[in-house]
Write a structure and sequence with these properties.
The protein is mostly helical. It contains 2 helices and 2 strands, in the order αββα.
Length: about 130
């Protein structure tokens, strides 16, 4: 019986060796067949040599631009603006005139008030005391 056991182990070893040999042959054949094939190129891809140069880009956008600081400016009296004395973005100082109003109506009112005070005469000082 001892010879029978050795024979089975010998046959199993031979089959294992034959299987490994077949795998090695298949891999070698695949590599040999693949050597002659040209490398595959990607469809529609162009390549160029690397060069140095400037990169220019144009960016378009839309939106609202708002000032970082804003101030509403008003006048003490009403009227029409006849002249703007500063431009957008100018640096201004406290007390600097920014615009001039049409003062013709105010001048007429002053003239009428002066004429009215003259025609009224001197004011009555009241009873002498």
């Amino acid at each position: 019986m001892k010879t029978n056991t050795r024979t089975r182990r010998g046959l199993q070893g031979n089959w294992l060796l034959a299987g490994v040999g077949m795998v090695v042959l298949v891999i070698a054949a695949a590599l040999w067949l693949n050597q002659g094939a040209a490398p595959a190129k990607a469809a529609g891809v162009a390549t160029v040599a690397v060069t140095r140069g400037d990169v220019s880009a144009t960016v378009y956008g839309s939106g609202m631009i708002e000032a970082e600081q804003a101030l509403d400016v008003g006048f003490q009296t009403g009227g029409s603006v006849v002249e703007v004395l500063v431009s957008e973005g100018d640096v201004v100082t406290v007390g600097q005139a920014l615009a001039r109003l049409d003062t013709r109506q105010l001048e007429i009112q002053v003239t009428n008030a002066e004429a009215g005070s003259i025609s009224a005469g001197p004011s009555d000082p009241g009873p002498a005391g």
